[in-house]
Fold:
Amino acid sequence: MSALPKKFYSPEEYLALERVAECKSDLCDGEIIPRAVCNSSHNLIVSNIIGAMRAQIKKLPCTAFTSDMRFKVAKTDSYFYADFVVVCGKLQLEDEDNLLNPTLLVEVFSQNTAGYDRGEKFRHYRQIPSFREFLLIPQDRCYIEHYVKRKDGRWEFSVIDELQSVIGLPSIECELAVAEIYDKVEFKRGAEFERV
Structure:
């Protein structure tokens, strides 16, 4: 038995569908990829990040967006949503609902979405000229992956795995305490939950 062939969509077809869809999806290389359903830990982490960053970003020439802001990767004609997006400088929009110039992108991931977020999405994100910094945050443990684009165009990678750490975000001149990210999040340890 052979698999059904994949259906590919043009950006225009995708946007027409997306603007009336009940659930959000990405358009990655012409393929529509439904966004994963978020659990309470995911939503709490995103809420914690927004709360921790709001006052800092308000003082800067930057704008922050939640996961409802779609952005376009012009070089690959693909569209994505991230869990938290910051733009520094003037907003560039393709139209009223498609951002073109994110500076910092944050993805909160589960075991099911880790490969896609770390692989295909990050491959596309790196094609955005304004994109300078990426945080990949697991929802079930303290092990944050931090990528920063250097002036020579190479990406520097580090791991933050201690709750007492503070992450410097040079692209937006802010800091993010790891304990704030995971405040009240329950990590599962075997059959038990451990609350941070």
Q: What stands out?
A: The chain has a mean pLDDT of 93. Residues 33 and 74 are 18 Å apart (CA to CA).
